[in-house]
Design goal:
By secondary structure, the chain is α/β, with parallel strands linked by helices. It has helices at residues 12-22, 39-46, 59-65, 73-79, 91-102, 123-126, 141-152, 192-197, 231-239, 256-265, 303-313, 319-330; strands at residues 3-8, 27-34, 51-53, 82-85, 105-108, 119-121, 135-138, 157-167, 183-184, 204-211, 217-225, 244-247, 276-279, 284-286, 289-296. The protein binds 1,4-dihydronicotinamide adenine dinucleotide (NAI) and 1,3-bisphosphoglyceric acid. Residues 3-141 form the Glyceraldehyde 3-phosphate dehydrogenase NAD(P) binding domain.
């Protein structure tokens, strides 16, 4: 049996998740919703993806443009086993009543509060917690990045302090930036630390700044160690951690620009870099403190998590089988 998947909100995350669903042999993409017949709606149609109006109120826009939709969101909900909600942050919680009414399982994204779902999810850290669940939240791109590396070294962690340097906007966003400024999140901790704690139980504080770039987020991480570890052991751990890759400045990876260039060189769709990129030279231990620096491709690291969340919710595979299938299907390097 293939799980029928719908995507509500065909934007930055939604279109990538929809694509990833089409690459799975145990899932099928039933359709996606759009609020208007823009170029993304036409492109979806060209790809053979049924396009539904996101609600009745948007139907007239499609009618006016002569764009034939397959129905509305409520029609899509009748067809699917699970809906991936990738609408703008905060909207998923409001949509949840529709999903409950339709009796359809739902996945929410990191822009929703943890209380919207039964479990907050990062596959390699807590896949089992999502087994059989109806509502799962894939945490934000930054939280996913922090959780992937920190869960790998969890046994050594006494306390984590991390600073998030966040991209101002996604490349397709001409409204928000980049801006000529550095904008701090003045609430400390930023939401990222408490969000990591919804997935793994560690001590962590975070602060965050927005900077003028569209190319990835960067995290500067300091861990107070519970027990001694050497830098070379942490290198070994990360080398053996799925969805984490080590990069060397020595080899020309000076900045996020070269990481994105590598994703282009790999002919990754939308230059997705699903893996968290840790700078190898940055991994260092001084006294009882471990330091490292990593980069997160905000548009894509959560995509494989959505796919694994679907498998967990339908108990279609165990953790490592699901991660392996997802990795292989998306060309994730390890
Ligand atoms: N862009 C990013 O870096 C990341 C975003 N997220 C989270 O993913 C979620 C979606 O974010 P993005 O994809 O970046 O947003 P986006 O703005 O690129 O896409 C949202 C899509 O939903 C559509 N939409 C708006 N109102 C709608 C409605 N009533 N019904 C259905 N669709 C509607 C928009 O037209 C757009 O196509 C948010 O929770 C966000 O926090 C998570 C990880 C990374
Ligand atoms: O939704 C996201 O970015 P956005 O809200 O700035 O578009 C990304 O998940 C990164 O956000 P975060 O810094 O809240 O993890």
């Amino acid at each position: 049996m293939k799980v029928k998947v719908g995507v509500n909100g065909y934007g930055t995350i939604g279109k990538r998740v929809a694509y990833a669903v089409t690459k799975q042999d145990d899932m099928e993409l039933t359709g996606v919703t759009k609020t208007k017949p823009d170029f993304e709606a036409y492109r979806a149609k060209e790809l053979g993806i049924p396009v539904y109006a996101a609600s009745e109120e948007f139907l007239s826009r499609f009618e006016k443009a002569g764009f034939e939709v397959a129905g509305t969101l409520s029609d899509l909900l009748e067809e699917v086993d699970v809906i991936v909600d990738a609408t703008p942050g905060g909207m998923g919680a409001k949509n949840k009543v529709l999903y409950e009414k339709a009796g359809v399982k739902a996945i929410f994204q990191g822009g929703e509060k943890a209380t919207t779902a039964e479990v907050s999810f990062v596959a390699q850290a807590n896949y089992e917690k999502a087994l059989g669940k109806d509502y799962v939240r894939v945490v934000s791109c930054n939280t996913t990045g922090l959780t992937r590396t920190l869960s790998a070294i969890q046994e050594y962690i006494d306390y984590v302090y991390a600073v998030m340097i966040r991209r101002a906007a996604d490349p397709n966003d001409a409204k928000r930036g980049p801006v000529n400024a550095i904008t701090p999140s003045v609430t400390v901790p930023s939401h990222h630390g408490p969000d990591v704690q919804t997935v793994i139980p560690i001590n962590i504080e975070t602060s965050a700044f927005v900077v003028p770039t569209t190319l990835m987020h960067v995290h500067s991480i300091m861990v107070e160690l519970k027990k001694p570890v050497e830098a070379k052991d942490v290198v070994d751990i990360f080398e053996n951690t799925t969805r984490v890759l080590l990069f060397e400045k020595e080899k020309g990876f000076d900045s996020t620009a070269q990481l994105i260039e590598l994703a282009r060189d790999l002919h990754r769709e939308w230059n997705n870099l699903y893996e968290i990129a840790v700078w190898k030279e940055s991994i260092s231990v001084r006294g009882n403190r471990l330091f490292y620096i990593q980069a997160v491709h905000q548009e894509s690291d959560v995509v494989p998590e959505n796919i694994d969340a679907i498998r967990a919710m339908f108990e279609m595979a165990d953790k490592w089988e699901s991660i392996r299938k997802t990795n292989e299907s998306l060309g994730i390097l390890k």
